[in-house]
Structures are given as structure tokens and as C-alpha cells.
């Protein structure tokens, strides 16, 4: 992986509830220099609030923008058959003029599965299914006639229409060693996450956010990528203020760790605090250290974070 990939930045549309929200957010993201607008894939309110159907909403966003990339962060594999997803992804890529990026994961939110009456299989089964799906998606979205026979999917002599004009970029969100290895083998971009837990939640352990853990995760991706140039991504929550240490101390208190943990906050790869110039310096240093070049922030932070985008995008 190239630790000097140019920076790019994305928005996660977490507060989009209406058509006006969507078009306003998409146009503003493009105006402010963000590379992508991404949407989550949930049909229950918690934990991120109500969400529009991502692929349909992104098609609408494509119609009111010209250069903004459009992505999913991330689709749950179990909610769609990979053949149908490939068709929808290729269609959206055509409608947007080649601006769609397909983000996908194994699915993790037990409560959502249960409310929808879907079986929440063991993690190993869900990851097995995702791996098969990724093989099918890469083949179909690469324009190949595809046959596949696996435990979960069987495909015979299929191509996708509209025919892809380029291989659709794929992002895989991953936190465990197995998922990170799978992402390294199949993804163009790997979104580094905390581990999904067997009980259907995401780990909130402090150790998941520490530099040694993040370094280990990026090493697992590199090992699996075997020389492929894979982009590394992370969703971050910047907090702005004139004095980074004071901001970090406040964040430590809010997390219940006490002011003595300010140094831990300052060193977290997913946490950026201080003025825009300081945050930009941190990002350059962490690109060198870990390889991250694609950062995403929630849409509530898009205006405040725009000066960082201006300082770093494309550099």
C-alpha cells in the first residue's frame, strides 16, 4: 500500500431525512471540495437515526451534482443478492457518469435483523457469505461473464447490464482479523473499524482505538493485499478548538476517562482535535505512520471540517 496516496475526504449523510436535505447536502459537499457523499444502510432508527434507501437516494444526488463521488458506507451484504446488487451498482455508476463506489460489509446489527425477521447467522457464516458475494461482485462489475458455485450463491453464465465501463471501486468495512484479510484481498478501499461483536454490537473498548491496534489492523490488510495498492479509510469525529490539549482533555472527560487521559485522546488515530492547521498536520503524520488517506466525517461537521479539506485534498 502506498503511504503517500493523495488525501481525499468524504461526507456521511447521517442527518438526511428529506429530499431537500439530500440535494442540499450533496450540492454543499461538492461546493466545499469533498470527494464523496456516502450513505449508510439501515432500516431501523437506532443507532444512527432514520436513513433513506442508499442506492435510490444516491441516484437522486447524482442528478444534482457533477463531480461528487457517491458511495455506500456500507451496505449489509445479507440484505441483497450479489447479482441484483451488481445490476443496481452498475446502473448507478452509469447514471452518475462513473462516480459510484460500492461499500459493503458482512452486516452486524442483530436488532435490525431480528426486527426484519431475518436470521442473524453466526459471524463466520455471514463473513463466508460476504466473501462469496465479493467474488461475484468483482467479476460482474469488472465486465466479465460470471459463473460461480459456492455454499451460499450459485451463478451461471451471467453478465450485468448496463455493461460496466470500468471496474466499480469496492470498499469493504472491516474490524476483525478475518474481515480485514478478506478486505485486503478483494477491496480497493478498506475502511478500518472497531470489531463487530458476536452479540450484534460494535466494540467500544478503548483498546480498539489505540495506535498499536490500528497499526496491527493495517498490517493485516497489507499482508492480505500481497502488494496490491489498497486505499485505507477511516470515519473520524473532529473536534475543533484553539488548544489541542484542552480539547483532548474535554473529550476524555466526555468519554468518562478523566482529564488524565488527554494524551490517549491526542494519540488516537480516529480522533482529531485542535485548529484546522493542527488537524491537517496530524493527518499528514498519520498517513506516514499508518497509511490513511481517505477520511470521512458526519454531515453535521462538514462546514467546520471544510478548512482541513481545503488544506489537504489532493495533496
Automatic annotation (TrEMBL):
<keyword id="KW-0285">Flavoprotein</keyword>
<dbReference type="InterPro" id="IPR036661">
    <property type="entry name" value="Luciferase-like_sf"/>
</dbReference>
<dbReference type="Pfam" id="PF00296">
    <property type="entry name" value="Bac_luciferase"/>
</dbReference>
<keyword id="KW-0560">Oxidoreductase</keyword>
<feature type="domain" description="Luciferase-like">
    <location>
        <begin position="17"/>
        <end position="247"/>
    </location>
</feature>
<protein>
    <submittedName>
        <fullName>LLM class F420-dependent oxidoreductase</fullName>
    </submittedName>
</protein>
<dbReference type="InterPro" id="IPR011251">
    <property type="entry name" value="Luciferase-like_dom"/>
</dbReference>
<keyword id="KW-0503">Monooxygenase</keyword>
<dbReference type="InterPro" id="IPR019923">
    <property type="entry name" value="Lucif-like_OxRdtase_MSMEG_2516"/>
</dbReference>
<dbReference type="InterPro" id="IPR050172">
    <property type="entry name" value="SsuD_RutA_monooxygenase"/>
</dbReference>
<keyword id="KW-0288">FMN</keyword>
Amino acid at each position: 500500500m502506498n503511504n503517500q496516496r493523495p488525501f481525499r475526504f468524504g461526507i456521511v449523510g447521517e442527518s438526511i431525512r428529506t429530499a431537500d436535505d439530500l440535494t442540499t447536502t450533496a450540492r454543499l459537499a461538492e461546493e466545499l471540495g469533498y470527494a464523496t457523499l456516502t450513505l449508510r444502510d439501515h432500516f431501523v432508527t437506532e443507532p444512527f437515526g432514520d436513513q433513506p434507501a442508499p442506492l435510490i437516494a444516491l441516484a437522486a444526488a447524482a442528478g444534482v451534482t457533477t463531480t461528487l463521488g457517491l458511495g455506500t458506507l456500507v451496505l449489509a451484504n445479507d440484505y441483497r443478492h450479489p447479482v441484483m446488487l451488481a445490476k443496481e451498482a452498475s446502473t448507478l455508476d452509469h447514471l452518475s457518469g462513473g462516480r459510484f463506489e460500492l461499500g459493503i460489509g458482512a452486516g452486524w446489527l442483530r436488532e435490525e435483523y431480528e426486527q426484519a425477521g431475518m436470521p442473524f447467522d453466526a459471524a463466520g457464516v455471514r463473513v463466508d457469505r460476504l466473501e462469496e458475494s465479493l467474488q461475484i461482485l468483482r467479476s460482474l462489475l469488472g465486465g466479465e461473464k460470471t459463473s460461480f458455485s459456492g455454499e451460499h450463491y450459485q451463478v451461471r453464465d451471467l453478465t450485468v447490464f448496463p455493461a460496466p465501463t470500468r471496474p466499480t471501486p469496492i470498499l469493504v468495512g472491516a474490524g476483525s482479523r478475518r474481515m480485514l484479510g478478506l478486505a485486503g484481498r478483494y477491496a480497493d478501499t478498506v475502511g478500518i473499524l472497531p470489531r463487530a461483536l458476536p452479540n450484534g454490537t460494535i466494540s467500544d473498548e478503548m483498546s480498539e482505538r489505540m495506535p498499536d491496534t490500528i497499526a496491527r489492523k493495517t498490517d493485516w490488510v497489507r499482508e492480505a493485499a500481497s502488494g496490491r495498492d489498497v486505499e485505507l479509510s477511516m470515519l473520524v469525529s473532529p473536534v475543533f478548538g484553539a488548544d489541542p490539549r484542552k480539547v483532548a482533555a474535554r473529550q476524555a472527560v466526555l468519554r468518562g476517562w478523566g482529564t488524565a487521559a488527554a494524551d490517549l485522546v491526542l494519540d488516537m488515530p480516529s480522533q482529531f482535535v485542535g485548529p484546522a492547521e493542527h488537524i491537517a498536520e496530524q493527518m499528514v503524520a498519520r498517513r506516514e505512520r499508518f497509511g490513511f488517506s481517505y477520511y470521512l466525517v458526519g454531515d453535521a461537521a462538514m462546514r467546520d471540517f471544510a478548512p482541513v479539506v481545503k488544506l489537504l485534498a489532493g495533496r
